[in-house]
Amino acid sequence: MRRRTAIIAAGLLLLAGCGSPTSEQETAPSSVVRIDFARGADRPLPTEVHLPPGRGRHPLVVFVHGYTCHVSEYADLIANWVVAGFAVAAPTFPYTNGAAAKLDVMDLLNQPQDVTAVLDGLLARAAKAGDPLYGRIDADRIAAGGHSLGGMTTVGALGKWRDPRLKAGIVLAGSAREVGAEFRGEPAAMLFIHGTGDQVVTIDQGRAAYDAVPWPKAFLTLPSGTHRNPFMSPADPDFEVVAESTTDFLRWRLNGDADARVRLAAIGTRFEDGLG
Q1: How much of the chain exceeds pLDDT 90, in percent?
Q2: Of 194, 193, 195, 189, whose CA–CA distance to 246 is shortest?
Q3: Which UniProt keywords are listed (predicted)?
Q4: Per the domain annotation, does 26 fall within a domain?
Q5: Are 84 and 247 a contacting pair, CB within 8 Å?
Q6: Which residue, 234, 236, 233, is CA-closest to 222?
Q7: Between helices 258-265 and 239-255, what is the axis angle to 10°?
Q8: I need a surface site. Which of 25, 85, 128, 228 has the fewest CB within 10 A?
Q9: Would you give the distance in Å from CA 163 to the centre of its chain?
C-alpha cells in the first residue's frame, strides 16, 4: 500500500501542475486527423494524428500525455516534431486526462497496451486505400514518448508490455515506478530528460529507470528544470533544448541522420551519452 499511496500523492501534485487548454493552444493551426479509437467499450482512445505537409510515408511518434493533462498542452513540442517531418499520434487516455469524469492514476498499468491498440489502428488505416492516413505512416520507423505518467507508460511499452514495433523511446520527467524496468526485446534507443528541480517525479527516480535500460541510451539533465514547464511552455528557458534534443534524437534514430547525432553529442556535460 505504501507504493500505491506514494504514486497517488504524486498524482495529486500533477493535478495541480496541469490545467485546461488555453485558447491559443486550441486555435493553433495544424494538419490534424482525429480518430475515435477504443480498446473496449470502457476504454475510448480519441486520437489526434498530426501530419507533416506533403505526401509520402513519415516516421511516427506516439505521444502520451501526463496525469490530469491535456494533449493541447504539448502543442508546441508536438509542432517541433511535425515541422521536422514526423507524424505524431496523441491519444487522450480515458482515466488519466484532465477532463476525465473518473480519475485513476493506477490506470497507468493499462496504458502501455492502449499504445499498442492505437498503433494497431493507425497502421490498419494507413494501409487502407482512401483513408486520410493511407500511405502516410512508415511502419518500420516508430517511436513512443511521453511526459510524467506518459513517460512511465513509455517505459512500460518498451518493457513489461513491449510493443516490438517501437524502435525508440523518449521519457520526459518519467520513471519506472509501478510499470517496472523490465526492458525486453530488440534494442530500442531511449532518451531521458529530467529537471533537477522536479518535485513530483524526482530526478533520482528518472535516473533509476535510465540505469536499468540495457540498450543505447542518453540522459539530459535540466539544471533548474521543473516537472512541467520545460516540456509545455516555450517561455521556459529549457524548452528550446528539450525541443531540439528530442527532434535530433528522432532524426538520428528513425531517419539515420548523422548530423543530428553530432548535434546531440555536442550538447555538453549535462548530456550523458550512451547512444553509441
Answers
A1: 88
A2: 193
A3: Hydrolase, Signal
A4: no
A5: yes
A6: 236
A7: 140
A8: 128
A9: 14
Could you give the number of structural domains in the chain? 1
Range of the domain at 215: 2-18+34-82+101-274
Measure CA 255 to chain center. Answer: 18
Strand partners, 168: 143, 189
Q: State the CB neighbour count (10 A cutoff) for residue 104.
A: 15
Closest by Cα among 179, 176, 184 to 202: 176
| Cell output for 175 | 520513471
**Taking Cα atoms as reference points, which of 83, 95, 4 lies closest to residue 43?**
95
Find the CATH number of the domain harbouring 68.
3.40.50.1820
- Measured CA to CA, the distance from residue 274 to residue 217 in angstroms comes to 5
271, 185 contact by CB (below 8 A): no
Cell numbers given for 98:
484532465
Q: Give the tens place of pLDDT for each residue, 196-226.
A: 999 999 999 999 999 999 999 999 999 999 9
42's enclosing H/E stretch is none
Q: Has residue 11 got a pLDDT over 50? A: no
